[in-house]
Amino acid sequence: MLRILLNIIWLMFGGIWLALGYMLAGIICLILIITIPFGIAAFRIAIYALWPFGSRVINKPTSGLPSFVGNIIWLIVAGVWLALGHIVTAFLQAITIIGIPLAIGNLKMIPISLMPLGKQIVPTDQPTFPYPGSPGPYQAQHHYPR
């Protein structure tokens, strides 16, 4: 119940504007073919920016050098500006007592706004290993001596 209440307050006091910023970045990235992965990541984060409480960001185990290079490009082109938007919004939210949890949630979104590629947004109640075929917490590979 608390998550729903925080998400509704978040939506009214900053979530819509942040999501619109990510959508604008996504639309701009869809103009060129080479930046389509950035646009997809921006739209994914826009949905997260609308309803962040009850979700978390995890690293994709399959990401590698292409995600790293893409994140460097994203950081220069859009990441810094979106992170600044989070900082300004968090400052404005922290002015009121009821806005302090929102400001903390906003500051937690800065890492994904700076480096979105190679990340996945999952519900907080989902296990850490959401990928089919990846070892789960009880399916880890054990090597026993013979």
UniProtKB/TrEMBL annotation:
Transmembrane domains' residue ranges: 5-24, 30-51, 63-84, 90-110
Highest taxon listed in the record's lineage: Bacteria
Pfam families associated with the record: YccF
GO cellular component: plasma membrane
InterPro entries: Inner_membrane_protein, UCP028777, YccF
UniProt keywords, alphabetically: Membrane, Transmembrane, Transmembrane helix
Domain Inner membrane component positions: 5-54, 69-119
Keyword hit for Transmembrane helix: yes
NCBIfam families, sorted: PRK11770.1-2
The name this protein goes by in its record: Membrane protein
Species for this entry: Hoyosella subflava (strain DSM 45089 / JCM 17490 / NBRC 109087 / DQS3-9A1) (Amycolicicoccus subflavus)
